[in-house]
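The instructor's notes for this session suggest beginning with a concrete chain rather than abstract definitions. Hand out the sequence below and ask the class to guess, before any prediction is shown, which regions might be ordered.
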Amino acid sequence: MSDTVIRVENLGKKYIIGHQQQERYTALRDVITNGAKSLLTTLNPLTQNSKNQAKNFREEFWALKDVSFEIKQGDRVGIIGRNGAGKSTLLKILSRITEPTTGQIGIKGRVASLLEVGTGFHPELTGRENIYLNGAILGMSKAEIKKKFDEIVDFAEVEKFLDTPVKRYSSGMYVRLAFAVAAHLEPEILIVDEVLAVGDAQFQNKCLGKIEEVGKDGRTVLFVSHNMATINSLCEKVIWLSNGSVRMEGRTEQITNQYLIQGSDRSGEVVISHDSSKKIFWFQRLSLLDCKGNITSVFDVKKPIIIQLEYYASQSIDLEIALDIRSSSGVIIFSLLRSVSINSELTAGNHIAQIELPALFLVPRMYSIDIAAYKEHTGFFSYHQSIAVFEIEETGTYLARYQGSDCGFFFVNFPWQERNSLEC
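After discussion, reveal the predicted structure:
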């Protein structure tokens, strides 16, 4: 169709991976031994061939395989997937940084990409020179770049360093300028990888606002992120990559819901594997129980939910244990903390702790659970994201309006009072 700006058909990218057996350091005895082996090889060449085959071999790795999709003008599309799913490879092909092995792509319009810190910048040129260079690469005239120049500099907040070679920029300054150039020089297609994570939180929010603005202007945005809350707020459509192939695509909330529960346990009980030889604390089990003590992952909205944690400490330690409840869109809606350092340390041995979520507390939806154990200024002892999923169902009729609606996450019953004044 005429409004299709990106068409990908049966795209594949193959890499050849070479493996070489690592050798330890060479001692005098190895020199003597290798000399003897060399003499043996001269007498029997087949020995050397078998040795080389053992030390070196090559294999094919398909980073992408049979990927097909279409993106229309003005779409804001999120690309999601676990590490190694093929997201960055796909963006590099769409940005014409690397060529596909199989298949074909069709792109209509100018593409601006922000994939890695420093992509598209010449390190020896100044910030000012790189702005004009990037504009020229996008096919813009000097007059067009000049018209946007002040806006770019103001957005990037690098005015003091405009005439400094960018090789002297910090990673944060690099990203600010690179994003400002990519977003303001009016490409028809803007491709952004999660390189924005390098910047501070304030600048990230500024960038996300600009991406949304670009999409509303009718330009196309491809955005890669591991943050499902950001994907849900920014993108209208999502493509989920898994092992180099498109696993699912469609409406954002539908796909991110499926993505978040992938790999999460839905049985109501999770046994957590660990390496006890390298840790002083680890979680052993998470169980979801109904009011009768039965293990389940589906709860009646009018009944309480009991969350039980089992964990082990190999020595006495003070730490914080946190349990986060996430919405189906990946947003943490509240956290439960258990401090074991206020009165005494956590003693060595097995421990069981549980907490009860009251009835008529969470509205009927799907939720996931994160668990973590940490110590301030020290770091995490253990962390598991979306380790378990549970669902709250409405079994009657009087709460049906909350199912799948935008009424928030919690039931509240604050009393209404008629007042004649606003005095406290």
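Then share the key points. The chain has a mean pLDDT of 82. The radius of gyration is 28 Å.
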